[in-house]
Write a structure and sequence with these properties.
13 strands, 22% helix, elongated
């Protein structure tokens, strides 16, 4: 049995024993052997982990999720989002509160919104890769390996050079449908087969558009309560076809893809009061649930 190092006046400082020339009970040869053993052991362990990770990543595609649709956490029911998002410290806040007469105040919201829309106005901000980007339409949808660009001129009044009309107390809110890989919308494209709960304004709009333009995920926005409906006033939607064109779907995570956006302008909302607003996406395979935050989005508008 190796005696533990002694620390006396004759001194075995720092574990060194002068009598037998050992450090902490081992000579240099012993320390070399054990150091080599652990270097080889941990080297082989690291190599084994690296090989396992390499094999694992060979089974993954960076653009195609392993679990899709029903098998994924996201599921098959997309959520609806809005921009600009409130910038206060409360992450749960959905209140858009601004002063149209105070440029310092409303410009913060304009800048917030422009930060999100920058990639739409500056195409070079998106990855291009090998995908072919083209201008699409209902009669000329993209082919395999192609993605559609977005014509920002379709937002008309909701443009940065007009401050998205925040200075006129007629703000534009942009809506987007959350991406689900491979999801294909089932359209309400038959004017005689529309859900009872769909707003009358949207039903009339669907009947007014061309038949080929009805392959659209429709959008509607309303005040949540009768008082909110009265306070909200008239609403305009841009582009003119009130929704997300069907030719942008399915989403396949192709480089250069930009989600379609709908700009909603509230032309004359009543100032000085909080207005509760709910917007909904309409397709046969979109279910509305506030609790699960799917198919619809809620926010409040307050203009001082």
């Amino acid at each position: 049995m190796t005696a533990s190092p002694k620390f006396s006046k004759k001194g075995h400082r720092w574990g060194y024993n002068k009598e037998d020339g050992t450090y902490y009970g081992r000579d240099k040869r012993s320390w070399a052997k054990i150091s080599l053993f652990y270097m080889v052991f941990y080297g082989m362990l690291a190599a084994l982990v690296a090989i396992c990770m390499w094999v694992f990543f060979q089974t993954l595609d960076p653009r195609i999720p392993k679990w899709q649709m029903e098998g994924s956490i996201i599921g098959t029911n997309p959520g609806l989002g809005f921009r600009p998002m409130p910038t206060d410290d409360n992450a749960e806040s959905t209140l858009i509160w601004f002063e149209g007469s105070n440029k310092t105040n409303y410009v913060k919201w304009v800048d917030n919104l422009m930060g999100y829309l920058d990639k739409y106005y500056t195409p070079g901000k998106t990855e291009k890769g090998t995908a072919s980007i083209r201008r699409c339409s209902y009669t000329h949808p993209p082919q395999r390996g192609q993605v559609c660009d977005f014509d920002v001129r379709l937002w008309e009044e909701c443009s940065p050079d007009k401050f998205f009309n925040y200075h006129r107390n007629a703000p534009c809110i942009f809506l987007k449908l959350n991406r689900i890989y491979g999801w294909i919308p089932q359209f309400y494209n038959d004017p005689n087969d529309l859900p009872e709960e769909m707003p009358d304004q949207l039903k009339q709009h669907i009947r007014s558009v061309k038949p080929e333009e009805r392959d659209t995920i429709w959008i509607s926005c309303e005040g949540e309560n009768p008082a909110d409906i009265e306070y909200l006033g008239p609403i305009r939607y841009f582009p003119k076809v009130q929704g997300f064109p069907g030719y942008y779907y399915p989403f396949e995570n192709t480089e250069g893809y930009l989600s379609p956006l709908v700009a909603v302008q509230f032309e004359r909302p009543l100032a000085g009061i909080v207005i509760n607003i709910e917007c909904k996406a309409w397709a046969k395979n979109v279910k509305h649930s506030r609790a699960d935050r799917t198919g619809s989005v809620h926010f409040e508008l307050l203009i001082d």
